[in-house]
Amino acid sequence: MNFSSDNATGASPEILAALAAANDGAVPSYGDDPVTARLAARFGEIFEREVAVFPVVSGTAANALALATLCPPHGAIFCHRESHIAVDECTAPEFFSGGARLVLLDGEDGKIAPATIAAALPDYRRGIHSAKPSVVSITQATEFGACYKPDEIAALAACAHANGMALHMDGARFANALAFLKCSPAELSWRAGVNVLSFGATKNGALMAEAVVFFREARDFEYRRKKAGHLISKMRFLSAQLEAYLEDGRWLKTAARANALARMLGDGLSKIAGAEIAHPIEANGVFVRLPNATVARLRQKGARFLDWAPPKDGRTLVRLVCSFATPEEDIERFLEVAS
Amino acid sequence: MNFSSDNATGASPEILAALAAANDGAVPSYGDDPVTARLAARFGEIFEREVAVFPVVSGTAANALALATLCPPHGAIFCHRESHIAVDECTAPEFFSGGARLVLLDGEDGKIAPATIAAALPDYRRGIHSAKPSVVSITQATEFGACYKPDEIAALAACAHANGMALHMDGARFANALAFLKCSPAELSWRAGVNVLSFGATKNGALMAEAVVFFREARDFEYRRKKAGHLISKMRFLSAQLEAYLEDGRWLKTAARANALARMLGDGLSKIAGAEIAHPIEANGVFVRLPNATVARLRQKGARFLDWAPPKDGRTLVRLVCSFATPEEDIERFLEVAS
Amino acid sequence: MNFSSDNATGASPEILAALAAANDGAVPSYGDDPVTARLAARFGEIFEREVAVFPVVSGTAANALALATLCPPHGAIFCHRESHIAVDECTAPEFFSGGARLVLLDGEDGKIAPATIAAALPDYRRGIHSAKPSVVSITQATEFGACYKPDEIAALAACAHANGMALHMDGARFANALAFLKCSPAELSWRAGVNVLSFGATKNGALMAEAVVFFREARDFEYRRKKAGHLISKMRFLSAQLEAYLEDGRWLKTAARANALARMLGDGLSKIAGAEIAHPIEANGVFVRLPNATVARLRQKGARFLDWAPPKDGRTLVRLVCSFATPEEDIERFLEVAS
Amino acid sequence: MNFSSDNATGASPEILAALAAANDGAVPSYGDDPVTARLAARFGEIFEREVAVFPVVSGTAANALALATLCPPHGAIFCHRESHIAVDECTAPEFFSGGARLVLLDGEDGKIAPATIAAALPDYRRGIHSAKPSVVSITQATEFGACYKPDEIAALAACAHANGMALHMDGARFANALAFLKCSPAELSWRAGVNVLSFGATKNGALMAEAVVFFREARDFEYRRKKAGHLISKMRFLSAQLEAYLEDGRWLKTAARANALARMLGDGLSKIAGAEIAHPIEANGVFVRLPNATVARLRQKGARFLDWAPPKDGRTLVRLVCSFATPEEDIERFLEVAS
């Protein structure tokens, strides 16, 4: 019963198999191999336009490299107070950008709204005394498992662009958002105004593979990736993961399964006395307040999950994450113990 | 007949198999998994002392992170003019360190000598006007396939330490050096005075795996790795490569095979009229001057290799790299065409 | 009637005269001159202990260089949400430190309290996923004109040190705080636990001169200053300002005058119907809510000052800053117009 | 007899007087004052076109800020091996640019030639493995007192621009070059293809004042200056130095005097047995090889100057720098002792 993180899960068998398939023979290194060559076309099909795609090994690398391309050293990045770039990536955005500032915004369910950005902007409109507003970064799905709809993204993009800022999307769980919203990758990204997307795969079945997808000129991104030690010499092993991930809609199926399990878990929990769902369950995470006794009992029976906040008023807000590989019986067992 | 790079080769089957073996079940992420836990002990055995080991995905990351830990932003790193950190890592050492300076030294076969360091030092002893001498970085085996012997390393370490500098070893081909010198990992590293080692595995059979090995306090290395996006969430897949690499002396066997093939290739070439071996063949690389006509004929027959310098006086200096996976018949065929 | 900033004022005549006096003859550059040599001893007397003193030309430089010495690239700096380093120095702290994070804290009158730091710390105690708590930075006097008393500083130092953090004081208005609290420089700095002080002079009579004062080892500060372009070649002209500033207690007299004028201005305003003093007047700044009509009338009569926030409920919070050179009649005239 | 550096000299009386004149009354800070407002127009007249001018306090700041604007973090800056940015500014160019690489070139008298750049470029044309050629930086007059003629600059600019690089000029002694070449500031800068000029004043009579002059869009230079702590609050005191420096052609007169004194010194030395002038004397520096006994005698009589290299074959290469303020009798006395 491991609901601690979608990172706790291994890789999908098909992606593992793709590594073996890619292993044959000698091929040029640093991305000049046939697998990587196919990748740009594959992403082009999926996003229904020409894109520039750069595989990397971690979400932090994807985000920080993308942000550094969009944000000057003296720039400000507007993001949610509890976004991954704000609380889980040490100081990677600052490091890669050469010292940019994160401006932390509030918002329900991990989402930020154009009005919040507009309210924060005047403090950054005093000339060179404060950082220059340069990027809005949103997370899809959010840290609290909510999904931005295309029109919400479009409104944020309009706000960002009107203020000379680019729109970055941290799509570590982009597939989960697609599976929930049932719209196309294009609708959820560039058509809504996203400039650069951190396209996640690791949490949804890869071993270690993400991609930075540019919908505008990628400028010197390749140099930045190399300079950061993120250009892999045997690149085929990174690209093969992404290729297998996208093959036959696998990425959407695994995401849909993870979402469905979270839904099932949430539905079950919502019927338990004393339990309170804290955020809408739209992706693969469930945030629920449980009585402290229930929390203790679950842990004693071997369940693993995160306390999101210290106990309060007899209850604890916990985070439960499902993945493509979570056994269905784990859900049943968890609900059984929790009841 | 691909002799272009040891990066052009795939992974060894055993390392691929180890990935599958590590895939079972859910385990804590970011390095709190059992495979990673075993790794420190394993490296401890191999180096005959307690060490701090940090897996990363690329040699550039290993080098730049190690150097940044040893060198302040205003420091100088003394290295060979043609070392990997100087010519093949974009500006990673400068980026990770916050702007340190590389001091480029000459030396036969890619080696630097204490006397060369001593001669360069006075320019960096004028107080704060020049960068502060902080690190000596050497490459084992060198870019030209030569190996530093333990006493050569000890002399460099003595010079470095006497001048307040640390000794870093870029061991992208550390296994090849061990296989050639037939000494122990300890003799070739900390016993000779090395402070931090970039321990390579990718060129010798891993998919993407290197390790930074500290023989002194690792200070905040973990923060630096995270901040650079090099802490992998599903760490088990990185650690499993290193574990399989070290298992049953596999790493030394594959390195020995690569070295032997290079030796065989060099021996054959040395008998060919007009060919001239340019550097001692101690590891898995062969540097040879060949008549331009021979170079053209080889390429026409499908051989892949690097021109190390533009043609001169009717000949070209080329680099031929063998790997653990190079087919023996490729050597024979190459020699046949070259003759 | 210029109350816009203490930076709007020129220099004191004695400091200007000191520049001319320092101009005689040729002397060694980069700080090896006799004026600079005297400075360390002078600061030593004033602080009643040996200190390391480094003159620089701006408060931003003083703060950012000091913080970079205390904080690693992956560190967190805890400071008030409206402190100068947070809102008025673009992204200098991030730049100089190599990407550290500012943690913004609330607090009355621009002061932060140990309890606020303690409450923020758990978010930065999750290992390498968040920045490492490294520095507490306080401002003396605060942006709102309040002064930390020695025991308040001592409590903050105790909290910082107990948590492995250093205590930095931005003393851009250190003299004003001393003049108000009537304690010694030592009591207000190292005796209370301050590790490094940004010692201001520009706002209180210098042309452009601040000093970074270390009460602990200064490590490689000199390199950092040089690397940042802040080592002045004709250093005597920087040191001479500081020497004249400190001579005969001039710095305390000018600060006392500025404070007294602010006091007078505040007293007068507090008697005006509809005016409300927003923060205790302890240094040289007055924060007051004035009816919008009053604000408009004052501006029309030529008064210059800052709107601190947009108008609200018919009134505007404005900031009025007095300096050593503010004419007393400006106060009277301002009060007359405001009444 | 102080010939150690033009930094050893004080400021010219007129520039000191300008500080006092600028001291009157309260004016807006951070560059919104009347003196600074006049500066752009003044530079515009002098350079015969609209320019963007940014005063700073040191040559290192001017150079590093200019280079950071022209060079991405992954860029390469081509410069002379003994240029100030290479040997006298610690690692400021690397720091400000976010880790760019200096490519050190040889050249007579401190000058670099297009052919040398062309010869170095292929090593930086291997894609993302090496730094991206971004800037050519030249020094006018050079560290060895030689001056680039307009056609030499034009040839360098053509080479730089043809290769996608900008041309930066470190004009710490720009006035000395103008005085020697007797051409206009425009001819020696933008008309010859210079993109950004570090315009020096400190060595030629200012206390601490340089300016970065942009002949192309200045992009976010203002942010970079602020972020680096180089935006002075009481900016009038920086701008006033530059204004007085340029007034009535003062800068060219003082430079011409320094040059003439160096010429006189060189002429005298060239007649002394055993003395050998090492570089053409075009600006205010004299490089001469003197018998060691002569060197010792001069020092004993109180002469101050730099040994440029360790003694060799009984002679020492020394540097003698004249300034606008060097007394003529010092030249005579020096020659007398040296004879």
CATH superfamily of the largest domain in chain A: Type I PLP-dependent aspartate aminotransferase-like (Major domain)
The two chains with the largest interface, and their residue counts, are:
A-B, 56 and 55 residues
What is the topology, as strand order, of the major beta sheet of chain A? 1-7-6-5-4-2-3
Q: What number of structural domains do the residues of chain A give?
A: 2
* Distance from first to last alpha carbon of chain A: 15 Å
* Rg from Cα of chain A: 20 Å
Report the structural category of chain A.
alpha/beta
Protein described:
4 copies of one chain form a homotetramer. In chain A, helix 1 (13-22) crosses helix 10, helix 8 crosses helix 11 (250-270) and helix 11 packs parallel to helix 13. Chain A is globular. In chain A, the strands form 2 sheets. A 7-stranded mixed beta sheet of chain A has the order 1-7-6-5-4-2-3, with helices on both faces. Helix content of chain A is 39%, strand content 17%. With 339 residues, chain A is an alpha/beta fold. The model of chain A has no long low-confidence stretch (mean pLDDT 97). In chain A, helix 8 (174-181) links the parallel strand 5 and strand 6 (196-200). The longest helix of chain A is centred in the last third of the chain and has 21 residues, at 250-270. Chains in contact: A-B, A-C, A-D, B-C, B-D, C-D. At the B-D interface, helix 5 of B face helix 5 of D.
